[in-house]
Amino acid sequence: MRTYGQRRSKQQERNLATEVEGRVHPASGATMFAKGDVSTDTVLFECKTTGAASYTLSLESIETVWRQAVNSGKESWVMQVAFHRPGTASRKIAILDWNEYESLRSSLCTDPR
Questions:
Q1: DSSP readout, the chain?
Q2: How many separate domains does the chain show?
Q3: Are 74 and 42 spatial neighbours (Cβ–Cβ below 8 Å)?
Q4: Does residue 39 form part of some domain?
Q5: Which residues contact 72 (CB under 8 A, 6 or more apart)?
Q6: How, if at all, do strands 43-50 and 38-39 pair?
Q7: Domain around 88
Q8: Of 35, 37, 60, 77, which has the fewest beta carbons less than 10 angstroms from its beta carbon?
Q9: How big is the CA angle at 89 (ends 57 and 108), to the nearest 5 degrees?
Q10: What pLDDT tens digit does each residue of the chain (113 aa) get?
Q11: Is residue 9 part of a domain?
Q12: How far apart are CA 102 and CA 92, in angstroms?
């Protein structure tokens, strides 16, 4: 039987796949042929979920996702951290490379200040 956290994690992956029109990878990317949790044709997504008030992000975890994206032939990567606190609404945070952010910003804004 899955724990509450494991159920939350699987739900996060399914929701993200629906939102980005991607697909959930089997075993949360633990297989040799499909790394990451969710992917589209161009982006690899890694999902993290926590019931705590904070999440520790390491350079090693970012480099791992980046490397998996490159090895999978993806153009970019995104980490989504979902905070689930009892009695409050969930909050989702996206983590992406600064250059990717700059590219998105310039494509969405005519005046990127």
A1: ---HHHHHHHHHHHHHHHHHT-EEPGGGGTSSS--SSEE-SSEEEEEEEESSS-----HHHHHHHHHHHHHTT-SEEEEEEEE--TTS--EEEEE--HHHHHHHHHHH-SS--
A2: 1
A3: yes
A4: yes
A5: 34, 35, 36, 39, 44
A6: antiparallel
A7: 4-108
A8: 60
A9: 65
A10: 578 778 888 889 999 999 999 999 876 545 555 678 899 999 999 999 999 989 999 999 999 999 999 999 999 999 999 998 877 778 999 999 999 999 989 888 866 55
A11: yes
A12: 20
- 113 falls within a domain: no
First to last CA, the chain: 50
Structural domain includes residue 78: yes
Strand partners of residue 48: 81
CATH number at residue 72: 3.40.1350
pTM beyond cutoff 0.90: no
